[in-house]
Amino acid sequence: xxxxxxxxxxxxxxxxxxxxxxxxxxxxxxxxxxxxxxxxxxxxxxxxxxxxxxxxxxxxxxxxxxxxxxxxxxxxxxxxxxxxxxxxxxxxxxxxxxxxxxxxxxxxxxxxxxxxxxxxxxxxxxxxxxxxxxxxxxxxxxxxxxxxxxxxxxxxxxxxxxxxxxxxxxxxxxx
Length: 175
Description:
By secondary structure, the protein is mainly alpha-helical. It contains 4 helices and 2 strands, in the order αββααα. The protein has helices at residues 26-43, 78-113, 115-125, 129-171, and strands spanning 47-54, 57-64.
């Protein structure tokens, strides 16, 4: 399962380095919603926080609520700046996952189609029967990993697409 780290997705139920994914089961979505509401409620009196979607980029925008001149305003608190940075990282990661998905699928397909040719090369390159067995076993393990990578890359690509859909839902219509 792909987990996109976010400062508002930590849970006391998780181990030291485990983080909850932004998308997942209904319970996890409710916890993420609750975390967003908490972040919003804590900063509601001082800041206006909203999500913006431009093309394939999504990001948090934080404005000082009481300041007319944004240039002279005080710097954002650490937790708000971190949330902005995390959303940028999530957006960049989701874009990269989708953008490189087709190239990765083509490469994986080529490797799978070349399996028999690689097996013949292993037989020809091995000097001894023992070495041939070792090389054949390595090839088999590598091809299993290629198949696993194919499955995971498709799963990650779907989840990245869901992240964009969720970002669009949160951002709302652009007027």
